[in-house]
């Protein structure tokens, strides 16, 4: 393995949550008087922390979202996760291979700790991620595309940034990894390849990842 640490994004990389959460986000914003399509939600918010939603809506409309926006949205998302969420195809096999080979790995997500844990518990991925392997934008001052989260994860795992590779499916995540001085493999299952062109490598099937990392 050419890297000492594999850092996974969560939504869309480990758990197939992006279609669910962006459908619900678009619907809720539209309900509040900010018409948003599913495609626009993917374009503007995929891979971002919740503060980006608040910032962009206020910047574009001059109006702030309700104080309880995050709580209501996450309540809807978690309920949908319980009904619909599945792991990304091939993700379990990748984790099994990394664990068997003794390669360090972790997750660094724009989502909250609660969102990460709900998703992992629902899909059975929690067996691969104890607390010490989970990092959230809640842990740092700035979310993606700032490099802070990936740098924090590397520091906590005791690995130099140049020895890390990030697995990402969003343009914001790719920007953050590049800014952190890390290689980044862009997962194109949901995101057009041209939007991830800053990545070190592009791939479309999670089952291919372990061979690519060798």
Please tell me about this protein's structure.
The chain is of the alpha/beta class and 214 residues long. 45% of the residues lie in helices and 12% in strands. It is built from nine helices and six strands.
Q: What is the structure about, briefly put?
A:
This protein has 214 residues and is an alpha/beta fold.
- Oligomer class: single chain
DSSP strand content: 5-15%
Can you summarize the main beta sheet?
A: 6 strands, parallel
Structural class: alpha/beta
Percent of residues in helices: 40-55%
What characteristic shape results from the CA principal axes? globular
Determine Rg (CA atoms, Å): 16 Å
State the separation between the terminal residues, measured CA to CA.
4 Å
User: Main sheet: which strands, in order across?
Assistant: 3-2-1-4-5-6
How many β-strands, per DSSP?
6
Mean pLDDT: 95
* Residue windows where pLDDT falls under 50 for at least 5 positions: none
- The run of helices and strands is EHHHHHEHEHEHEEH
Number of helices: 9
